[in-house]
Amino acid sequence: MTDWRLNGRAIIGRAYPRVLGVMREPSWILFDIFLPLLGIAAYIFYYRAMNAPEMYTGFIVIGGAMTAYWMNVLWSMATQFYWEKEVGNLQLYMLAPMSRMSVLAGMALGGMLMTTIRAVSTVLLGVFLFNVQLTLAQPLELALVFSLTLIALYGMGMMFSSLFLMWGRSAMQMTSLLQEPIYLVSGFYFPVKALGYWVALGASILPITLGLDGMRQLLFGVSSNGFLPVDLEIIILAVLAVAFFFLARHFLEYMENMGKREGRLTLRWQ
Q: Per-residue pLDDT for the chain (270 aa), expressed as one digit of tens each?
């Protein structure tokens, strides 16, 4: 079997259980759709009690939808190799003849499809329940920003997957550290520009920061208090997507070489 066919089948094979897993337990779909709305509703009522501009309701709905992707990258991409080692599957990945990058790509593809159900439902229900007014003047540009954000974000997840495996049990602390603080510095529920230029610039290393900012500018216009021009954010997101892909490949090779040298890559509790 040629390499591209083998790796293509590995991508589909690794994405398949994540897509199928969404439909395995129908009650999970209900929880994934409605429970996140409770947290979003809390922020919306808080802003409305303070008489904030109505577009902030839309900011929260879009930020709440993108939260699903960030959680998926942290818990189903970054920590995945570590979990695979703990349950004994990592040896199988190392022995199989396909590229380990195809395994990571399959995890990313399946994660995107699985999470999109929750994200789309959050946006649709949020728009309907809270009467959010969106402007789709540039749908192609919006789709481009969204796609580049996901590619760069999951590329970062692929990179973290090897790093978290090398860090071992410290990966859990890193995951917790990267969860709540990122909601603040990436501006999930408010314009990131409000944090100041240098904080917003530093947070832009995370693709979701510029992705959220760009999508809000395209959906709510110039009054959305954007950080950078959308065209520049598209360029930066494209650079981040390529950079994270190559870094993921580099750290994957480093992790494999280290495992060959030290012989403890697949040992549990390391």
A: 568 888 888 888 888 887 777 676 677 777 777 787 888 889 999 898 988 888 899 999 999 899 889 988 888 888 888 878 877 778 788 788 888 888 888 888 888 888 888 888 888 888 888 888 888 888 899 999 999 999 999 999 888 888 887 776 666 677 777 777 888 888 889 899 999 999 999 999 999 999 999 999 999 888 888 899 999 999 999 999 999 999 988 988 888 887 777 766 665 555
Whole-angstrom CA distances from 105 to 34, 117, 172, 188, 233 are 29, 19, 22, 26, 24
HSE-CB at 105 with a 13 A cutoff on CA atoms is 14
Evaluate whether 58 touches 132 at the Cβ level (below 8 Å): yes
Give first-to-last CA distance, the chain, whole Å. 36
* Residue 223 CB contacts under 8 Å (≥ 6 apart), including other chains: 53, 55
Position 198, amino acid: W
> With a threshold of 0.85, does the pTM exceed it?
yes
Q: Beta-carbon neighbour count of residue 232 at 10 Å?
A: 12
